[in-house]
């Protein structure tokens, strides 16, 4: 992990197309601004983890439903 110190209004660059700027600093809170292209997805970690867990749960449920469906056989219709 890279650890950097920044002061108010200072920035850091990620690659050539992402800028992170320190907007304000108060007691135990730092507000940052992130300037990135539209195709770069930015999430708060706790929301990302919830979404990831939700997707994994849905995926497991889908696999279980598929396994359940495999117990059925389809009869071909006679023409």
Assess the beta-strand content as a share of residues. Answer: 25-35%
> Roughly how many Å apart are the termini?
66 Å
Would you tell me the overall average pLDDT? 86
- Can you give the helix content as a percent range? 25-40%
Spans of 5+ residues with little confidence (pLDDT < 50)? none
What labels would you give this structure?
single chain, 79 residues, alpha+beta, 2 domains, three-stranded antiparallel β-sheet, 3 strands, elongated
Structure characterization notes:
It is a single chain. This protein has 2 domains: 9-39, no CATH class; 42-72. A hairpin with a 2-residue loop joins strand 2 and strand 3 (29-35). The mean pLDDT is 86. The protein is an alpha+beta fold and 79 residues long. It contains 1 helix and 3 strands; from the N terminus they run E-E-E-H.
List the helices and strands and how they pair.
Elements: E1 11-14, E2 18-26, E3 29-35, H1 45-69
Antiparallel strand pairs: 1-2, 2-3
What is the structure about, briefly put?
This protein is α+β, with helices and mostly antiparallel strands. The chain has one helix spanning 45-69, and strands at residues 11-14, 18-26, 29-35.
